[in-house]
Structure formats: structure tokens, C-alpha cells
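On clarity, I found the account of how folds are encoded harder to follow than it need be. For illustration, here is how one protein appears when written out as sequence plus C-alpha cells.
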Amino acid sequence: MTTPLIITVAAVGAELTLEQQPNLPITPEQLAVDSAACAEAGASIYHLHVRDPEGRPTMDVERFRAAHEAIREASDLIVQFTTGGAVSDGPEARLAPLELRPEMATLTTGTVNFGDEVFLNPLPLITRIYERELEVGVLPEFEIFDAGMIATADRVYREYESDHHRHYDLVLGVPGAMPAWSDSVQWLASKLPEEATWSATGIGRNNQPVAVAAASSGGHIRTGFEDVRYLEPGRLATSNRELVEQVAAIATSNGRPIATPEQARNILEL
């Protein structure tokens, strides 16, 4: 039986501005409308960053609370919090929203160049975030920007003697991290634990090739404004829904049914 394909929508991110993407959902009300539209188009997971009233990225717990409640009222999507935030956010800010106990949260398992900046994730911080996720019953999604991060994810999993389902997101094409080479998706996926599940994210123009590679290799796919602004060269996407629909078409053309949120929860053992 073909495994249904889970679509994650990273709707906001921490880098994109309203000038770059005027359709970026900022308020809880906008996030609610956006999440419902993405669910209707085939998304199962809503990866959440939040913004302050001026549109600036923030890790404020109350902004996460309002957004989380609005999305849950509007859809049955799995809500996945970021613990990365913006590259300028410190450890306390990155940890704080976990008190709201979303179903999932990310965990980046290594330091990586991020364009002209550095996304700092030393091992003590990785283990601190991981420990907190386990403490509050949140399923980690290991964010993999380079091959060494797979080994670190395995290390913390073993050191804590964990038994939760392991799910990874392979992020390809960030300047300074692993490029989206033609064999990057398959090569990284081959290094993951046999029982694990994984999705892949292609940044910018890499989004569609990476999605095709993931769909054809048994993986899942992430899309959304955080990762890609354009539906096609020269055409700005009008909504996250458009990007989800594009991924759903790729999945279908590769013979993969689209997972419902309920099916995604079963696949991820939530």
C-alpha cells in the first residue's frame, strides 16, 4: 500500500517581509483563514512562526498562544512550533513557546551558516531543547541542514534512551548549508534510521525539484512562504494554499495519495 504523503506548510517564517510577500499571514485571524485554506488544499501540518503587530518576527508566548488557538479553531491541522525562531533569538526565547504544548516542534541539530549569518545550535542547546520537548510531550522534528546533523540527532535520541517516533525534515538550498544537488534528497534519506519518516524542503527555486525527489522516494514535502515565494518564475504566489496545491499535484503525479491530518497523526505516531 502506498504511504500517503504528508504536506507541511511553513506559512510565515522569520525572514520574509510584507514588502517581499504582501500576502504573508501575520495576525491570528489571518493565520486562521490561511490554515483552513491550506487544510482544504491538502496540508496536514502547519509549521508556525509568529510576528508582532508590526510584522517583525517574535517568540512571544502570547503571540504563539493566540495563533495556536486560532489555527486549532479553524482546522484540524497538526500545529508544529518553531524552536529556531530568527537567528538573533536567544535560548530562553526559543524555548518559551513550548509551554503551550503543541503536538510537534522543530529541533535543529547543528550550527549552520545562514546566508551572511550563523544559525547557532551548539550541542548543549540542542540537548536542552530536546529535553524540554520530551518533558512537555511534544514530538520533535529533527531539522537537517547538513549531513552531520543526522548523526547528532541520532546521538541525542540514544543518549536520552528515547522511544518516540523519529521524523526528520531535510532542508536543502540554504546559502551556506547543503545544496539541493540532484542526489541530495535520496542520499540524505538513505542515512536515516530505517523506521523513521522524513520530509524535504527545497528553498526558493529548489522547491519543486526537491518536492519531486521526495514524492518519488517515499518521503513527505514541506512548502510555504517561509521556503518559497514564487509559484513559478516571475509569478509571486498569492497564498500558501497555492503552494500546497502545487505540491499536492506533484504528489498525485507520482502516485502518492495526500495524507489527511488524521492519517498524518497515525504515520507520525502522535
Q: What stands out?
A: The two ends are 21 Å apart (CA to CA). The mean pLDDT is 97.
